[in-house]
Amino acid sequence: MSFFRRFAQNRGALVGLAVLFVIVLIAIFTPMVSSADPWKSLGRPLTPPGAQFPLGSDMLGRDVLTGILFGARISLLIGILSAVVSALIGVTVGAVAGFFGGWVDDVLVRITEFFQTIPSFIFAILLVAILTPGLTSIVVAIAVVTWPPIARLARAEFMTLRRREFVEAAVLSGVSQPRIIVREVLPNAISPLIVMGSLTVATAILTESALSFLGLGDPNRISWGYMIGASRTVFRQAWWLSVFPGLAIVSTVLAINLVGEGLNDALNPHLKGRVGVQ
Amino acid sequence: MRHLGFVAGWVVKAFVVVLAITILNFFLIRMAPGDPAIVLAGEAGAADEQFMAQVRQDFGLDKPLPVQLAAYVGNVLTLDLGQSYRAQRPVVDMLFERLPATLLLTGTAYLFALIVGPLLGALAAMRSRTVFDSALMVVALFFYATPIFWVGLLLILVFSVNLGWLPPFGMQSLIPVSGTLNHVLDVARHLVLPALTLGLFYVAVYVRLTRASMLETASLDYVKTARAKGLPEWRVATAHILRTALLPIITFAGLQAGHLVGGAVVVETVFAWPGIGRLAFDALFQRDYNLLLGVFLLSALMVVFFNMLTDIFLRIADPRIGGNS
Amino acid sequence: MPKSLKVEGTIRYDGQNLVGLAPGLHRRIRGSRIGMVFQEPMAALNPVMKVGKQIEEVFRFHNVPGPYDDRIVALLASMGLPEPELLRHAYPFRLSGGQRQRVMIAMALALDPDLLIADEPTTALDVTTQKQILSLLKAAQDERHMAIMLITHDFGVVADVGDEVAVMQEGRIVERGSVREVLHNPQHDYTRTLLAAVPDLSPRPARAASAAPPLLTATDVTKTYKGRAGLFAPRREVQAVKGVSLKLARGETVGIVGESGSGKSTFARIVVRLLKADSGEVRLEGVPGNLLALDHRQLAPVRRRVQMVFQDPFASLNPRRTVFEIVAQGLLAHGVDRRTARKRVDELLDLVALDPSAAERYPNAFSGGQRQRIGIARALALEPDVIVADEPVSALDVSIQARVLELFASIQARLGIGLLFITHDLRVAAQICDHVAVMRNGAVVEEGESAQVLFDPAHEYTRLLIDSIPGLGKLPTKRAVAPAATDAPER
User: Fold this and answer.
1) Whether residue C356 has a cis bond before it, omega within 30° of 0
2) CA distance C298 to C334
3) Contacts of residue A179 in chain C, CB cutoff 8 Å?
4) Residues B41-44: contacts with CB within 8 Å, 24+ apart?
5) CA distance A184 to B56
6) Cβ(A225)–Cβ(A209) under 8 Å?
7) Chain A: nearest CA to C311, how far in angstroms?
8) Given its phi and psi angles, is residue C210 left (phi above 0), alpha (psi -120 to 50 degrees) or beta?
9) What is the Cα gyration radius of chain C?
10) Is pLDDT above 60 for C339?
11) Which end of chain A, N or C, is less packed with Cβ atoms under 10 Å?
12) Rounded distance, CA C176 to CA C468, Å?
């Protein structure tokens, strides 16, 4: 069965893909099409959802809907960038540790364990606070705290594949080590890594929202977490200020998770089979 | 002897973590743009010359880098985390004041997640492909995909603002209650929402994990053996499937401990819970980096402690670890 | 049981139809009246429950009144398990494969069932352990007057312990009758094919090649595995290979025979330099110095002369690469251009009797036997002088085994390769080897010409191995594989 057929068999994955598609469109086109300014006050503060403000206005009279539409870009951007950086670190560390073994592995495993032991979110806060909040510092901070699970997975995959007979055969055939890693091992390890990478995007978006909720977001760009955090003092009177941006975060993260599960079914059919049959 | 080795192993581990975090902290401060003295003294504060001199002296900033590092590590190892230049108090005192509240919150959430999550996950696996299973998995996926702070805000909206059942913030009522029992009940009432908020995400994680792990274990050969012995289904499910299926969950819970402690910062901020997470948030706003570094160190130690607890559980549950026969 | 599986018909047990029987009633029969033993002793016991406790469950949940301790100890003792009082407090991971299978049988026999169903109970075990377990089952049967339904792929086992036999093909019983009748006068074609494929212990005649100067000489090769030392635990050591020496001539096949843990595979991987030896020497004709001491740069040009064929036809081919890429990888790595490599791969596929169109396909399009042919083609691509074959047929069905062995023999006759053949199966060794070395616990206990070692063994362990071959002397004999078949064109 083909990749697409297996993916399409998972109905949740299809729904997730559709939702994600819409969000991506919003993220790409809102700033291009709309001339609105999410920072500008358009009317009375704290107006409940209604004709003037479909999703209400905040304490400075800014439109919540506009904020949400403009916020999509930063959430997705940070999510994807940090997942890519995180995957680059994780796969490199894991691949080297798993493939070469020995003391290299020992050292890298200790480092990975250390990064997994430290309270990742507090570390991220420290990094952003000290490097001053901005796109780069947030991406770096999220990547630095999300790579260890990827490294562990990559290491496990590389370690088992390294001992496979087809890798031994390549060694005996005189194939060079970099070529063995890239041509023999990586293609067989890539499926679970892709799935994990896609789930890392979801984690990164959640982490970003928590950082900006605490006021550590990029001060020049509006984001969903910031909207909730900024209105925290008035949320008891104006529920719409936290509920709608929160829904935006939840639907994005949910959609990515569903797509990730669909990818898992499609890329690792043996895993699905193992879980499904009893 | 075995227990001695175990304890010694964890002491070494804790020591290494403290050392590593200390070194990390040292370099983090020096990564910040500008004079470390100004960074440490608080950028926003109108620090006078005398104050800056004190900071420079505390940290030996006029000496070469290795000497500074050695002095810093030495200080930390003697439990001297320096001053909070905002509060003008030793950081260690401030941390220990707040530690019990955080331990109470994270400990409750951890236990709640570790009991409820696997329980629900096991039920879902035993009724796999029923309405109950599907509904539970949808709910679990929802909480898995929801930012913790948002769950907290919604819970406050529903249970405090609308229903008025539970207090929305703090650890105890503003007007002190009399009697120990009343005091405990008061704290417990305040604890419900924050602990629920922090725990629900992990409940979701463990529900999903336990279900998958149970279904996978159920297909193993020895489960067939158990059925061939003529054991009743409930016995097969509890003694043979669940027991083994829980092992990866416990392992994972240990790995997640760091995450849990980090989540406490957000929850304590939302609920104004007077723990070290809330302290971190305040330190963040006052740019009291020395205090923030202290929080980081202490929370890392808490993670080591949670890891150790998990390891003990795992040793009890899995005879293959630790070499007892 | 998968939910989609549908069972129709009747299974009568003691007058009761088991198909569609209420689960509660069925449960009461399972484990008490019908016992069951499975194939994988490593997987069939609960890893986190003490052995005694697992047996106790049988008593407890069939409402046998306690106390159970004495019964459990007696049961374990009757299975020939050592120190049953201690053993019942052990977890399965402390036991050997044979011991676990004994525990399984103890559990199945705890309530003296009328019927024991044993599903390939000895397939995962070494041959000497298999013999012990089969006699244990026999003894238990005589003592209890119990029926045994034994499921096996091995006619040797049938010949040893069976009274009646039913032959199944594609879900149907194609032939049944008394064991004597079916073995000596098979009626169905499928039964005949199966019987013909069972190799017997008739060594091929030793060939003149043995007199040639040695191509490969191993002297005193030693390897110790060192476990990792914990912070407070001493490091564990296992001596896997102890001073193994042997010689291999051009055109000769030397077999290394041993049970699991004998160190034969470790030795094979040392010879091809996939593992490092601690000490010892391997000399290869035309290479100055010790092969084991060459550094990476010196090794590169020599490596192609010693190639390997692997055990697992599924794990040994990269599922993501075409057969062409797999077979040609060595050629391409040694700078041969693609067009030449292409021609060479066609020749090689022809040599191993595969269609040239195979080159464009991926490994999953092939059966186990075909994959093993691809593996052989890969090993031959660099025109090696020595091929080390590590259990190359043990993952294959008996009927396919014979064909792959024929292929080895014919290729060797044509190309004059020295073949080091690792196997646990004496019958396979007899078919293909000129010389045999028997290994046990890392050391060679006996070596010599196949005929001599197999018919006149000097060491008691060799005798034990031969005695343990299931069905020896009870199956009709056939001729050995002809060494030089001419079914493929010269290259």
Assistant:
1) no
2) 15
3) 333
4) B41/B85, B42/B85, B42/B86, B42/B286, B42/B287, B42/B288, B42/B289, B43/B287, B44/B286, B44/B287
5) 56
6) yes
7) 8
8) alpha
9) 25
10) yes
11) N
12) 26
> Domains of chain C, with CATH numbers?
12-197 (3.40.50.300), 216-467 (3.40.50.300)
pTM of structure: 0.83
Q: Which domains does chain B possess?
A: 18-77 (no CATH), 99-288+303-324 (1.10.3720.10)
Determine the Cα–Cα distance for residues C364 and C354; give it in Å rounded to an integer: 15
Distance from C-alpha of C392 to C-alpha of C77, rounded to nearest angstrom: 39
CATH class for the region spanning A3-31+64-268: mainly alpha
Tell me which amino acid residue B307 is: N
3-state secondary structure of C381: coil
Torsion sign, CA atoms B70, B73, B77, B82: positive
| Distances A88 to A147, A194, C54 between C-alpha atoms, Å | 8, 12, 48
Across the interface, of A168, A174, A278, the residue whose CB is closest to C304 is: A174
Tokens representing A111 are 């480092």
Q: Mutate which of C299, C312, C318 to disrupt the A interface (most A C-beta within 10 Å)?
A: C318
Q: Cα–Cα distance between C443 and C377 in angstroms, integer?
A: 32
**Cβ C38 vs Cβ B224: under 8 Å:** yes
Helix axes B91-126, B276-285, angle to 10 degrees: 120
H or E element at residue C269: helix C264-271
Tokens describing residue B181: 């029992």
Q: Which of B221, B229, B247 sits opposite C43 (nearest CB)?
A: B221
Residue C440, strand partner residues? C443
Segments of C72-112 assigned E as strands: none
Give, in order, the Cα–Cα distances in Å from A5 to each of A14, A195, A264, A265, A267. 11, 17, 13, 10, 11
B232: nearest CA in chain C?
C27
Residue C479 confidence (pLDDT): 44
Here the tokens at position C438 are 């028997």
Model pLDDT for residues A54-109, shown as the tens digit of each residue: 777 777 778 878 888 888 888 899 999 999 999 999 999 999 999 988 899 999 99
Chain C residue closest to B4 (CA)? C232
ipTM: 0.85
DSSP element (H, E) containing C310: none
Tokens 């330190």 belong to residue: B283
